[in-house]
Write a structure and sequence with these properties.
single chain; 6 helices; globular; about 30% helix; 5-stranded mixed β-sheet; alpha+beta; 14 strands
Length: about 230
Amino acid sequence: MKIRLLAFATASDLVGKGPQDLELDAGARLSDLRLLLQDRHPTLEALWPRLAVAVDGALVQGDPELQDGAEVALLPPVSGGAPAKAQLVDGPIDVAALERAVAAADCGAVVLFLGTVRDHHGGRAVARLDYSAYRPLAESTLASIVADLEASEEPIRAAIVHRLGSVPIGEPSVVIAVASPHRQAAYDASRLALERLKKEVPIWKREHYADGDVAWREEEPLPQPGYR
């Protein structure tokens, strides 16, 4: 099947300006298009987590199936715009930007959860943590968690950012921001977001100990597939 690709701003610098017609297998999904583009343009991989994607003029999240003749647009963040509300980043998390992304005049409570790297585990001194992920699934699952929270009966605005790569002691590896008219709903949504993240999102952490030893931290299997 054939789809038409449009890229804007920095994305167009990487994949080329102007519309492009690309051939994909029938039943291909957005993740298949991403792999094709990153194979042809390897530098796109670093930008992709910051992109919004529109299919036939509508923003999409997750990994939708593409239809023959679909128009797919790659949209970098606009200047001064809010960050994506569910994303993986490869450097320090901008906590203030995440708070701004959920704040609203009708929300009297904003809850920020910062999961920071501590300097010990199991009685051993820890030097740092390294995080890795199955990125396409991790991104789509984070987006699903945010969408589910915001679809609840209580008005909720939510955002989740998880950091990958090496994270030093004391720095956040994950930040969850939740806003709601009432504090209890914000507290509950923040807790649920973290519990679902730990159970459902394919992100793994590797501990580097002060004595030079290294070990993966993987929890026992949960009723649902557990990834962390």
